[in-house]
Recover the amino acids of this structure.
C-alpha cells in the first residue's frame, strides 16, 4: 500500500515534468525573441531531465525503464494534470501556464525536500535549485508584461482566466492522499494549494491583472486519473514516432 | 552550426578611392600584422559592409537552421537523444544571438537584419532550404552539416574582425559537442537494424548534393574576392574548404559502410586533392534565389514567429511599466 502510494506520487510529478518540458521545447525556433526561445529551451531541458530522474526512482522501485515508461504508454496511463498538456497557444498562454505551474512546482519540491523517502528528498533538493530560475523567469515577465501595454495586460488576463481552472487541477487529490501524508512522503496537495494561492496572489498584486476571486474558479480535475483532453494522445504519438519504428532498437 | 557556404558577389572596389589613403594603409598594415580590428577602429566602408553581410548571413543561418532540426526535438527517440537535441538546437539559437550582437557592433540593428531576412534581401545557408524528412536526416545535419560549418568557422575565427572572431571561438567550442552528438547518433544507426542503416543511407543520398553546395560555388566560377582575402574577411577559397571537409569526413562515412552518391568521388594520390562530379551550380543558384523546396516555408515560419511575438517585444520596450495602484 505504502509503495503504491509512493509510486502514484512519483508518476504524477514525473509525467507533469515530461509533458510540460515537451511543450516548452516546442517553442524552439518560434519564440517572440531569441532570448525567450533560449529560456523556454532551458526550462524544457530541466523539466525533461527532472522527469527522467523521477522515472529512474520509479525504475528502482521495480517499474520499467524510463524510456519505456515515457515513450510506450498511452494517454490513459499518464497521470499529469491537464494544464501541462494543453497546446502552447500564443506566448501569453505559455507564459501564464509557466507561471502558474512553476510557482506550484517550486513549493512542491521545497516540501518534497523534507520527504521521508530519502531518494526523493535528495532529488528534490537538486530540482528545487533549478526551479528557482524558472520562477524568476516567470515572475519577471509576468510583472513586466502584466503592467506594460493594454495589449499585453489584456492578453495575460485572458489567458489567466482560461488557465486558472486547469491550474487548480494540479492539486487534484490522490486516492492515496492520506497515506502519502501519513507516511511523510509529501505534505499533500491541499497544503501545496494553500501556499500556492498566497504566492500567486502576491505576484499578481504587483501587476495590473485582476485579483483572483478564488471561490468562483472551478477546478478541472481528471488528469491524475488518466482522463485527458484530446491534446495529450497526439503529443504522445508525436513523441514516440521514431522510438516506435522499432522499440527494441537502440537509437 | 551553421555558418559557411557564404556567398559573395563580385566586389566593387571603386568606393576605396574615396577612402583616406593613409588610414587605409594603416588599417591594412594592422591586419597584415595579425592584429584585430575593433568596433571603434577606423575601417573602410566596404569592409564594414562586407562584414555585416557575412555575419548577418551566418546569424540567419543559425535561426533558420534551427527549424529543420527543431522539428525533430519533439520526436527524438528516447531521453538521451531528446535532451541532447534540445540542448544542441538551443545552442544554435544562442549562436544567432551572439552573431547578431557581433553584427550590431558594425551599426546594423537586429530588427533591421531580421527585416532583411524576411524580405529576402539577405540570405542564409542554402542547405536549410531542403527538408529533413526522417530522424536520419536530422542526424546527417547534426554530424555532417555541423562538420562542414566547423571547417568554415575555424578558418573564419582567424579573421580580422575582433567581435566576430571571439563569437566564433565560443561557437566552435560548442560545435565540437554537436559533432560528437551527431556522430554518436549516426554510429547507432550504422550499427543498428537494417531499417536504421537504410534510413541513414537514404539521408546521405538526399543530402549529399546540398552538402557539396554548402561550401559555395567552385573557385573556377565564383566571384573575385581577393580584397576580402587580403582583409581577412574571407579566409579560404570555397574549393579549399570543400576539399578539407571531404578529406576529414568521406573516409569516416565509408568506414561506417555507407556509400556516397557520386561515382567519381576519389582522392587523387598525386595532387592529394579530392575529385568529384562538379555539383550542379545552376540548381544552387535557383535554390539560393528562392526556388528551393523549403525557402517559402522557412521564411514564412520566421515571419509568423516575428508577427506573433511583436506585442511581446513592444511591451518589453515600453519606456516605463505603467503605474500600478498600490493595494493600500
Amino acid at each position: 500500500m505504502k509503495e503504491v502510494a509512493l509510486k502514484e506520487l512519483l508518476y504524477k510529478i514525473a509525467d507533469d515534468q515530461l509533458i510540460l518540458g515537451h511543450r516548452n521545447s516546442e517553442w524552439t525556433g518560434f519564440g517572440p525573441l531569441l532570448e525567450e526561445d533560449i529560456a523556454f529551451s532551458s526550462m524544457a531541458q530541466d523539466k525533461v531531465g527532472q522527469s527522467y530522474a523521477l522515472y529512474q526512482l520509479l525504475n528502482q522501485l521495480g517499474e520499467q525503464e524510463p524510456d519505456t515508461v515515457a515513450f510506450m504508454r498511452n494517454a490513459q496511463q499518464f497521470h499529469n494534470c491537464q494544464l501541462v498538456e494543453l497546446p502552447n497557444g500564443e506566448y501569453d498562454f505559455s507564459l501564464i501556464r509557466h507561471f502558474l505551474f512553476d510557482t506550484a512546482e517550486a513549493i512542491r519540491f521545497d516540501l518534497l525536500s523534507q520527504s521521508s523517502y530519502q531518494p526523493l528528498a535528495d532529488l528534490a533538493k537538486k530540482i528545487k535549485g533549478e526551479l528557482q530560475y524558472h520562477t524568476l523567469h516567470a515572475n519577471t515577465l509576468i510583472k513586466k508584461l502584466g503592467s506594460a501595454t493594454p495589449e499585453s495586460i489584456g492578453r495575460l488576463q485572458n489567458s489567466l482566466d482560461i488557465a486558472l481552472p486547469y491550474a487548480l487541477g494540479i492539486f487534484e487529490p490522490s486516492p492515496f492522499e492520506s497515506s502519502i501524508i501519513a507516511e511523510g512522503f509529501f505534505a499533500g496537495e491541499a497544503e501545496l494549494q494553500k501556499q500556492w494561492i498566497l504566492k500567486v496572489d502576491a505576484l499578481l498584486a504587483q501587476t495590473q491583472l485582476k485579483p483572483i476571486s478564488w471561490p468562483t474558479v472551478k477546478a478541472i480535475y481528471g488528469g491524475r486519473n488518466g482522463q485527458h483532453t484530446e491534446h495529450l494522445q497526439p503529443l504522445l504519438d508525436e513523441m514516440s514516432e521514431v522510438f516506435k519504428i522499432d522499440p527494441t532498437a537502440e537509437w | 552550426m551553421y555558418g559557411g557556404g557564404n556567398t559573395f558577389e563580385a566586389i566593387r572596389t571603386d568606393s576605396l578611392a574615396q577612402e583616406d589613403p593613409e588610414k587605409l594603409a594603416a588599417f591594412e598594415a594592422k591586419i597584415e600584422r595579425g592584429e584585430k580590428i575593433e568596433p571603434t577602429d577606423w575601417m573602410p566602408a566596404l569592409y564594414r559592409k562586407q562584414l555585416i553581410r557575412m555575419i548577418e548571413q551566418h546569424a540567419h543561418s543559425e535561426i533558420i537552421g534551427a527549424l529543420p532540426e527543431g522539428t525533430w526535438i519533439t520526436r527524438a527517440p528516447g531521453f538521451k537523444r531528446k535532451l541532447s537535441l534540445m540542448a544542441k538546437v538551443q545552442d544554435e539559437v544562442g549562436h544567432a544571438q551572439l552573431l547578431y550582437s557581433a553584427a550590431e557592433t558594425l551599426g546594423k540593428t537586429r530588427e533591421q537584419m531580421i527585416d532583411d531576412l524576411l524580405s529576402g534581401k539577405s540570405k542564409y545557408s542554402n542547405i536549410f532550404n531542403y527538408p529533413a524528412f526522417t530522424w536520419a536526416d536530422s542526424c546527417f545535419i547534426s554530424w555532417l552539416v555541423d562538420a562542414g560549418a566547423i571547417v568554415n568557422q575555424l578558418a573564419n575565427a582567424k579573421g580580422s574582425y575582433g567581435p566576430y572572431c571571439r563569437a566564433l571561438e565560443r561557437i566552435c567550442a560548442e560545435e565540437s559537442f554537436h559533432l560528437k552528438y551527431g556522430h554518436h547518433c549516426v554510429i547507432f544507426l550504422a550499427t543498428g537494424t537494417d531499417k536504421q542503416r537504410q534510413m541513414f543511407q537514404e539521408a546521405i543520398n538526399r543530402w549529399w548534393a546540398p552538402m557539396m553546395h554548402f561550401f559555395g560555388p567552385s573557385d573556377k566560377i565564383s566571384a573575385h574576392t581577393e580584397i576580402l582575402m587580403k582583409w581577412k574577411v574571407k579566409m579560404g577559397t570555397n574549393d579549399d574548404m570543400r576539399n578539407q571537409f571531404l578529406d576529414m569526413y568521406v573516409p569516416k562515412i565509408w568506414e561506417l559502410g555507407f556509400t556516397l552518391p557520386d561515382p567519381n568521388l576519389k582522392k587523387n594520390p598525386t595532387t592529394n586533392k579530392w575529385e568529384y562530379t562538379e555539383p550542379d551550380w545552376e540548381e544552387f543558384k535557383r535554390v539560393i534565389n528562392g526556388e528551393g523546396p523549403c525557402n517559402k516555408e522557412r521564411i514564412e515560419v520566421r515571419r509568423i514567429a516575428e508577427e506573433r511575438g511583436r506585442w511581446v517585444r513592444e511591451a518589453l520596450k515600453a519606456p516605463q511599466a505603467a503605474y500600478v495602484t498600490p493595494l493600500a
Notes: Chain A has ten helices and no strands.
